[in-house]
Amino acid sequence: MSLSLCEADVAVGRVSDLRFDNVYSRLPDEFFHRVAPQPLRGARLAHFNSSAAALIQLAPSVAAEPDFIAQLLSEQALPTAAPLAMCYSGHQFGVYVPRLGDGRAIVLGQVRNADAQLWDLQLKGSGPTRYSRGADGRAVLRSSIREYLCSEAMHQLGIPTTRALCLIASDEAVYREQPEPGAMVLRMAQSHVRFGSFEYFYHTGQHAYLRQLADYVIDEFLPQARERVNPYLALFEIVVERTARLIAQWQGVGFAHGVMNSDNMSILGLTLDYGPFGFLDTYQAGFICNHSDHSGRYAFDQQPYIGAFNLTCLAQALLPLIDVDQSAAIEKLQAQIKEYWTVFHQQMADISRAKLGLQTQHEGDQNLWQSLLALMEGGTDYTLAFRALAGFDSSKITQPSALRDMFVDREGFDAWAQRYAARLQQEQSDDGQRAAAMNKVNPKFVLRNYMAEVAIRCAEDNGDFSEIARLMELLQRPFDEQLGNAHYAAPPPAWAQSISVSCSS
Ligand code: AMP
Ligand code: MG
After folding, report:
1. Residues 21, 215, 219, 263: which is the catalytic one?
2. For the chain, does the N or the C end have fewer beta carbons within 10 angstroms?
3. Where are the beta strands (DSSP E) in 113-210?
4. Mean pLDDT across the stretch 279-301?
5. Active site residue 301
């Protein structure tokens, strides 16, 4: 489908004017369950994300319409939408669960934007579906705020992620350990298909559907795979590469996902399903952000391995599509998983070099990087230290206290600083230019848990969403100095350590 230039320029002024093209809903019934969202009492707009709205040419003025939320939740207002919950399975904490599916999310429909790109509009917290497994299909305000803020933060950090169009608050109580306000996030992604979507059709022996799912993903989102001799192997190759790059980016920015189950892994290599995630405050390689993760399966430093594990789950699911000869298929897929590590290490080397402000590649760079992390372990704020490292003065033996005092082992840091200075000299690095380059890759602002928590408390206690708005504004420009917002770039307060987050709230 092609649109003329002037059509593409026209913004969609009302939600009811969105043009839906529900390609996924035309797949066989096994792929989903048709179900409409259930209204939430007192549902109201808490925040609207104009930058996500622009992806589908939705005019920001829609948010000012008094019936905006009512329209989103009304079948009559969206007659061309085809709401559905997607079916999938997946490996949760390493154990295969035969059927999961969207238990509390509904894809309202798929919108084609002016560039003919398909965008799923998915309401999370929209009520029970066939896949709810006895749970209420709802999401609480605190987890919705966290997802809403973090997906925007990740996007602005340059990390592939689902987006969020708006946050919806309500007066309806949702029962967890105690009653809490219910909420919804209207999430957007080109596709919400997961590794687990493939696993479902493989493990139920529905291989024709498996192929149809792969064809859907290739034709809509990864058409470059269709040009290749073996499009399904090419699909896997692309997913491998994107996953490796994604996880390297997480490690670079200090992001722990928290629940890397294979049903939370996007086939498009997006950060998907924000739950008990956390950004590192103090650097701790084994940081566990999810309080239900007793074994540390999803600890920060385990993420690259879990990426490989999940790709193995996906590889198994793709087996019937790769080659009629099973051992040949296994060999081809295994070769790709090997490639995962090559891409991951390459990407990690590039990211770490950029974080150190190095322009050239040298043999000792990884050691320099690892030694710095070892010095940070348990005592140094990850984000603040890299930001401060931009101020490293290569002409001085002793570094400014603003940097040096961040390290518990100051002499150890001094020794490292000498190696770093020598390495910088080796490439005739200019301190000013290096600082400017480093500040473009080392963010000043990340969404620390305590920041989200402050926004959550304001919203829960006073129905005040202004902190959400402030953080959304702040996180639009994570690399900029934003001097007026310096307090958000301070070390977290002591109470931040008492925050506890776990799965599925
Ligand atoms: P998550 O840990 O959020 O990725 O969720 C894992 C699975 O449980 C998914 O299939 C979710 O849709 C489902 N789920 C989580 N919370 C709820 C809930 N409150 N009601 C229904 N299903 C849920
Ligand atoms: Mg999930």
Report:
1. 263
2. N
3. 118-124, 139-140, 163-175, 179-189
4. 97
5. no
